[in-house]
Amino acid sequence: MKTRIGQGTANSIIDVIGNTPVVALDRLTRGTPGRIIAKLDYLNPGFSKKDRIARQIIDQAIADGDLAPGQPVVELTSGNTGTGLAIVCAVRGHPFTAVMSEGNSTERARMMRGLGAEVVLVPQAKNSHPGHVTGEDLALVEARACQLTHELGAFRVDQFARDHNRLAHEWHTGTELWQQADGQIDAFCDFVGTGGTYAGVTTALKKRKPTVQC
User: Fold this and answer.
1) Total of domains in the chain
2) Which helix (H) or strand (E) segment is 119 a member of?
């Protein structure tokens, strides 16, 4: 007998990506003018905002016909994007291979493997220090990711170049933030990795209020 799913029950882990809460930091900022709120994207299933781009890029690739049923997926990662991709690819039925430098966190590699991903570790460049990933290290990881994409006939996520990295945050993160703050936003601050979150949220906010400082 098929069990009926209630209205408050998500159909899969992917369906609970996003719509993360915001919290006012009133106790920490007591005595300062204005109000600071923080958006808690670590409450996504993979513990980071990168879950959003993993879902957006994979689902868009499927919709566009760029990712065929069961086709492998490859991406270079330091951990967070790979964790999000491991979750999304597992649900969507795509084998996922994460390519990362040996200089990255071993805990991230174990997490991705625990979520069903294959993790390929690339040795660091000759003069690199353990735990510190250099541009030369990243070039080696990129070369290995390209090689595996060709060998496996895989879809390459290419998070640094795809528009849907940015659009995931313009369409969702920034829109959520505006609604949660009732449109009362004067400034937005973010730390930058690929730049997708910053660019996407900034675009969403400035469309609604051009004077927002970002």
Assistant:
1) 2
2) strand 118-122
